[in-house]
Amino acid sequence: MEIENNQDLVQELLSTIRQFPKMFSKQNHSGQKRSEIMVLFCIKKSGESEMKVSEISKRLHVKAPTVTQLINELESKGQVERITRSSDRRSVWIKLTKEGETVLQKAEEEIENTYSGLIDYLGEEETVQLISTLKKMHVYFSEKIEKENKE
Fold this sequence. Notes:
151 residues; Arc Repressor Mutant, subunit A; 70% helix; mainly alpha; 3 strands
């Protein structure tokens, strides 16, 4: 790769970053949509056995109607269940089922195998360097967004 100037570098960086959503969207975890897996992970990683749709929405930065649609799909597959409590019948809580746990476990294994393969491909030194670079990238964008929100 030959870079002539800063503009070429910007274009090469953008081109490279734009490839990632395409790669990740093609990953298929046991026939599940990526968005469904994200909801299952969110519920599991919450530290609670059940979550409200609004909390899932907030944590995933997705609108509640979108989460509701995903919950409907997951419920039809038997991977989550809705729970209402007698203390507040208006609130609906979402809980993973055994089937949901199984799907999530398979997805976790697939993800671990994929990233283990990447580590083998890059080697330890390049992997550590990549992690460091990605963390710096995250800090840069977080600070940029924070600064823009203050203005």
